[in-house]
Amino acid sequence: MNTADMALLGAIEAGGTKFVLAVGSSSSEILARHVIPTLTPDATLAAAAEWFAAQGKLRALGIASFGPVELDRASPQWGHITNTPKPGWANCDLAGYFADRFGVAVGFDTDVNGAALAESRHGAGKGASSLAYVTVGTGIGGGLVLDNTPVHGAAHPELGHIYVRRPTGDSGFAGICPHHGDCLEGLASGPAIKARWGASLSELPADHEAHGMVAYYLGQLCHSLFAMTAAEVAVLGGGVMKTPGLIERIRECSAELGAGYLPGTARHRIVAPGLGEDSGITGALMLAEDAG
Fold it and tell me: Does some domain include residue 179?
């Protein structure tokens, strides 16, 4: 669709393997989208800019990016991807590139904070005052929205790098996180599952021990989120969460761990993304809308 006669919101969901690009008239109306592979920064950003230029005039741009990223507006590194292990992308000035190229305001946050914002306003958490969004895939990341605002502190939440309790006798797998070994990401991410059991979770038989163990780890995360933040809704997305029956197992584990103690237990929900695959790009459009 050619939208050259409209002033548009632009959006980028910047991932380690692909960039999802979109333009819309508002955060709830995507008019066109495009996907490009994540190559070098120079090649990727140039290809993204070329596509946006072909869509028409932008009035603002939102970027929801893989990280780590700098979110402190007072920092000269604001809008940068920082110490990512992805080759070539460390210290990439993602927001600055597009601000300079198009001369528009840029909204910037993590990919999971963007998805959390979208699910809070338009998806599974609509009407709730608080929500956590967690993606379980190549890595494990999460974002929190409290009172319609993404949580930022000294940096951004790193929910995948909490330590979890391991079942009795489970000491044979060291975990794959290069920083922490057996943190949550080191034990329950897609690559961790494959490293331990030789296949993805959805490829393993339904009675395989992996299903219960991964559910136990992710159930601990949900219990911890409810206990520490009092979030009403935990939205679980990502490739691992497409495994049949996994979300039901996680709900059971979280409920068992909570033991009926937590105030507001009846209001805690563990759900799939209400926006499906559009959580991240919708969140990026919302960042553009808020910036413009």
Answer: yes
Same domain, 72 and 158: no
Among residues 251, 163, 243, 166, the alpha carbon closest in space to that of 211 is found at 243
Domain tally, the chain: 2
117 located within any domain? no
The residue among 241, 249, 246, 133 whose CA lies nearest residue 189 is 241
The sheet carrying 233-237 orders its strands as 149-150, 140-146, 130-136, 233-237, 269-271
The set of residues, in sequence order, having a beta carbon less than 8 Å from that of 104 and lying 6+ positions away, is 10, 58, 59, 60, 61, 98, 292
Task: Report the distance separating Cα 156 and Cα 153, nearest Å.
Answer: 6
Q: Is residue 28 assigned to a domain? A: yes
Query: Would you say residue 68 lies in a domain?
Result: yes
Tell me the pLDDT of the chain (292 aa) as tens digits: 454 567 899 999 999 889 999 999 998 899 999 999 999 999 999 999 999 999 999 999 999 999 889 999 999 999 999 988 889 999 999 999 999 999 999 999 999 999 999 999 999 999 898 999 999 998 999 999 988 888 887 767 789 999 999 998 888 899 999 889 999 999 999 999 999 999 999 999 999 999 999 999 999 999 999 999 999 999 999 999 999 999 999 999 999 999 988 888 889 999 999 999 999 999 999 999 999 8
Q: Domain residues for 250?
A: 124-272
Q: Report which of 280, 279, 215, 222 is spatially closest to residue 241, judged by C-alpha positions.
A: 215
Exposure of 255 in the CB half-sphere (CA atoms within 13 A): 11
| Cβ atoms of residues 234 and 225 within 8 Å | yes
CATH code, domain with 253: 3.30.420.40
